[in-house]
Amino acid sequence: MVKFSKQFEGQLIPEWKEAFVDYRQLKKDFKNIQFLNNNNSNDTKNQNSSVPNSIISSLRNYSPFGHHQNGEHVPPIQVHRKLGSSYDTELLEQFAETGAIKEFFACLDQQLNKVNKFYRTKENEFMERGNSLRKQMDILIQLKFAFQDQQGSIDKEYHSISCTFSNEEDSVRNREDPEEETEEISTDEIQFSDSCRADEVGEPTQVKREEEKLRTLSGRVINCQGKNLRINIPLTTPLRTFSAITYLVREDLINQSRKFSIGAGKVHINQTKLRHSEKMIKRGFIELYKGLEYLKLYRNLNMLAFMKILKKFDKVTSKQVLPIYLKVVESSYFNSSDKVIKLSDEVEELFVRNFAGDDRKKASKYLRPSHRHKESHSTRINYSFIFELVPTKELTYRDIFLVCTMAMTTVVGTMLLHLTLLTKGYSYAQLQHIPGLLILVFLLMLLCPFNVIYRSTRYRFLCTIRNIIFSPLYKVVMQDFFVADQLCSQVPMLRNLEYVACYYISGSYKTLDYGYCTRKNYYKDLAYAVSFLPYYWRAMQCARRWFDEGERSHLVNLGKYVSAMLAAGAKVAYEKDGSSNVGWLCVVIFSTAATVYQLYWDFVRDWGLLQFNSNNPLLRNELMLRNKAIYYFSMGLNVILRLAWLQTVVHSTLQGVDSRVTTLFLAALEVIRRGLWNFFRLEHEQLNNAGKFRAVNIVPLPFHEVDEED
């Protein structure tokens, strides 16, 4: 049977772990009480042989944890409620001499006050977000009704547009929504009367700060009930980016003259942007409902933790503390407030009515998606939230192991087939097409449009690669720059793919001319580009993040990849002409500068280490691994592996070793280094989320009130 403490830690929300009841500490204090109680019991047994029966009978009637006064039972504790809704437990005289019990109830009060404070904070945050979404929904409904009412009476000056706000039963998409990606922001506008009514648009302060960092496609200001509103759509795709430019130019050059000719009480709105607004509000409701469900789980788990620890206390002390303290817990704010339950029901009703066509079963697919496997956070890193993965389509570690095993088995099997055919008398020329066919099979599997071999994951991977290649046109999220960082460690692999493509496309495999591609100038020029591309993509991603968020740290990060490009260029140039002293000096200078830059960013920014005021020397306060030596060892190993470029300038002294073998060995070391980097990077991201208690995404909302029309 699994212990409650393990069940408790396995079910809690990892980003809110510090806000949950510290059950381990309570259990530790309880064990101190249990230890003292056992010692007292043993002492009593040892003295029984020499104590008269009358005294023994009196001791049995005496309890060290409570007493009776005038025939009435006196409660062992009294819980007082102070100002600010905090609680303080007063121990009666029979408890006064027991320090362990004092510590236990002091910790219990501290945990109860902490839970109440956090619950109230999150409840206010979600209530404020709920009010904003409700007002956003009201505006959207009014605009849709106004469009439907005037759909047949649009002025001839404007194009006739048919608009249907369908609630198609598609999967819960993240950023890679095919329909959303391919839609172009139309410049056609719909004319509405000022009968459109909307309440004031309210935004939580925290959400406002988040959204102010995000560049959006802001169209013409519309007026609803005397309030000026603007529709802001994030520029997440190239089509939106280009359309934003053309749309704003069209507004300035063409529509500016129309603005004054439209009769009073008329406003214009972009119909396609209205559809995107609906999707943004829809996702906002989904994230809000997710947060409310988390808060319900938070309440239930904490209530269960208080009940379990109090039961243990009563069992050891033989006192009825549970009914007294549990009554206080049940009446405390986190358990007695019903705002979250009411808001959750309201959100569900709004979602069913407006986004699911009054179909609750359909709505549940969005609000309560079924998990392919039992969710567990024993790995202590919430990968799904960090990478914004769809729970129903997330691969398990078994799936990943199966894919890797299948791929390696196929490669090894093909190699054995190749060797077997050679022993049967086939020539090298006859078997040169086998490796090419193997690569082609893997490529076709990746691009297969049928719903086989994890299609949703393959599609998501292809979308991520597309976003990387077309940087900075796409909005950058965690998975984009994380995969791009992996590509920075795969430059040798990319150059090998370049050689294989040239080898088969040029037909060199027919004549076994292995040096044909390396002799061609276009291949050498392409080698420069392949060496630069991963760093260029990351640099462009940093530029896009700076454009969207306005944080200078992204520009500093961009400088790191620029230095890496310079170092890579110097190494490629030196490989072409290894006898040049100037080339050797350039490699040393640029590579040294890039290495120092990268090591600083690895340790300080990506891993969050080298904090000199930390309780853990040269590390950080929060560590997921208990053994600190692992962090120090990883830091040292990262330094050594970052210096692998030294092989470039000393490879001429490595006599008797083929350069291709050395390159393969160094590439394998870089994979190991990147694996270490991945772990500590994700650990740092998880701790950042936990430090900010960020367990749900903040979705930007489309309608914003402005002071006046621009």
UniProtKB/TrEMBL annotation:
The keyword Cell inner membrane does not apply. Residues 518-710 form the EXS domain. One of its GO terms (biological process) is phosphate ion transport. Signal peptide: none annotated. Residues 177-187 have a biased composition (Acidic residues). This is Phosphate transporter. It holds the Pfam family EXS. Residues 2-327 form the SPX domain. GO terms for cellular component: endomembrane system; membrane. InterPro entries: EXS_C, PHO1, PHO1_SPX, SPX_dom. It is found in: Endomembrane system. PANTHER family: PHOSPHATE TRANSPORTER PHO1. It is a multi-pass membrane protein. It comes from Arachis hypogaea (Peanut). Keywords: Membrane, Phosphate transport, Transmembrane, Transmembrane helix, Transport. Belongs to the SYG1 (TC 2.A.94) family. The chain crosses the membrane at residues 400-422, 434-454, 581-600, 629-650. Residues 167-189 are annotated as: Disordered.
